[in-house]
Design goal:
- The structure is a single chain.
- By secondary structure, this protein is of the alpha/beta class.
- It folds into three domains: 171 residues, P-loop containing nucleotide triphosphate hydrolases (Rossmann fold), CATH 3.40.50; 83 residues, 3-Layer(aba) Sandwich (Rossmann fold); 121 residues, Rossmann fold (3-Layer(aba) Sandwich).
- The chain is 36% helix and 17% strand.
- The protein has 15 helices and 14 strands.
- Strands 2-3-1-4-5-6 form a six-stranded mixed β-sheet, with helices on both faces. Strands 8-7-9-10 form a four-stranded parallel β-sheet, with helices on both faces.
- β7, α7 and β8 form a beta-alpha-beta unit.
- α12 runs parallel beside α14 and α14 packs across α15.
- It is globular.
- The relative contact order is 0.11.
């Protein structure tokens, strides 16, 4: 399970082999969810488990491979462990006997690069007596709390919970409302939701569900229909909606029906404002008109759904962009949260999906290399709106609130 499948706060457990990371996971979760062994290197790929922490709520614990495995296979495992840093909200660095050398220093540097807060658990104090002077000096140098702990005796578990609660970033626990700042109580929001081959049988797709819940949380009224019923319903609808939101793929059709005086946007645009780099999107999207012959375009698909014959990322956007640009472009797609196949500077443009299944932190970290390198970024919904000539209309409801 990747973090892309769950938007609860993620806590990564890092450290050397046989330092008790898996035991700590089991202690925190109060159940055996990670394999514990005296053999170093038992944990290979990251292992994830959902649990509840008192006063914090549901979280995902991520057990990672030891960072001191110098074998060829171990280096691949370490690479996967380091990749987790861009996907977590809080890190726990496990040490023993106040040993803090290059392995730990490298992890701390990675935490800093990704803006991940961390605390240190000095584990196995039942085997290694605490050197308080060394521990205090380390805490003072790093300016982070150090919890002395024994998984065997479960010492200070409440203190560890308290520190996790204290250090967890608030934005990892509370999501900003999708449209709460532009609607008010009793307003009507109309959602136009096409049912195509990518829609799961018997249920709505996640962005639609999230927006329905957001409207209800703001004590407004949500009306949902398919695009085939839109024109007829708008003629009799009272009161008129304060906002219409549709799927990106239906932008052109819905735009032709919804009167100009009614604000119109898309699910992907709404998510882009909540989770993505919206200002960077607004600046980067018009670069679609400046693509040159042979330019390489990177599409970032955060989930790993089944690819259909009319998949939005792999099929439709490249088809629309080829037609819009009238250029021979090259496309590459990276699904999930895997590493890129080539340097980010090899791409002329990055197009991120709506990000409905991942967190704001993940989207921002995914886009950060491109933004820092000056590569234009946009997202599915904004790109589609631009290519269909309704970019200004689709972003207008949110421009004043950027």
């Amino acid at each position: 399970m990747s973090k892309g499948k769950d938007i609860k706060p993620h806590i990564g457990i890092f450290g050397r082999r046989n330092y008790g990371k898996s035991s700590l996971i089991n202690t925190l979760a109060n159940q055996d969810i990670a394999i514990v062994s005296d053999i170093a290197g038992t944990t290979t790929d990251p292992v994830k488990k959902s649990m509840e922490i008192a006063d914090l709520g549901p979280v995902i614990l991520v057990d990672t491979a030891g960072i001191d495995d110098d074998s060829d296979l171990g280096q691949k495992r370490i690479k996967k462990s380091i990749l987790q840093i861009s996907q977590i909200d809080l890190a726990i660095l496990v040490i023993i006997d106040s040993v803090f050398e290059s392995y730990e220093e490298d992890l701390v540097q990675a935490f800093s690069e990704y803006g991940v807060p961390y605390l240190i658990v000095q584990n196995k104090i039942d085997l290694f007596p605490i050197d308080q002077e060394k521990s205090n000096a380390l805490a003072a140098r790093l300016q982070v709390p150090i919890i002395h702990f024994s998984c065997l005796k479960q010492t200070d578990i409440s203190l560890l919970h308290q520190e996790i609660n204290k250090m967890m970033p608030r934005n990892a626990l509370h999501f900003n409302s999708l449209i709460g700042d532009i609607i008010k109580k009793d307003d009507v929001v109309l959602l136009v939701t096409p049912i195509d081959t990518e829609a799961p049988v018997g249920r709505m797709i996640l962005p639609q569900v999230q927006l329905i819940r957001d409207v209800l949380d703001n004590h407004a009224v949500v009306v949902t229909l398919r695009e085939t019923e839109l024109e007829k319903y708008l003629k009799v609808m009272h009161p008129k909606p304060v906002l219409v939101v549709t799927d990106s793929q239906a932008f052109g059709f819905v735009d032709s029906i919804v009167p100009a005086e009614i604000p119109l946007s898309g699910f992907s645009v709404v998510l882009a404002r909540q989770k993505g780099e919206f200002e960077a999107y607004l600046q980067g999207t018009p670069k679609l008109a400046e693509l040159k012959e042979g330019d390489r375009v990177l599409l970032l698909e955060s989930c790993t759904h089944h690819v259909s014959c009319d998949d939005i990322g792999q099929v439709k956007i490249p088809k629309w962009l080829d037609k819009y640009s009238n250029k021979n472009l090259e496309y590459e797609m990276v699904s999930g949260l895997e590493s890129l196949k080539r340097p980010i500077t090899d791409y002329a443009l990055v197009i991120q999906c709506g990000g409905c299944v991942i967190t704001q932190k993940q989207v921002k970290n995914r886009l950060r290399p491109a933004i820092e390198a000056g590569i234009p970024v946009t997202n599915y919904g904004l790109a589609i709106a631009f290519m269909h000539g309704i970019f200004d209309r689709a972003t207008a409801p949110f421009r004043k609130n950027v």
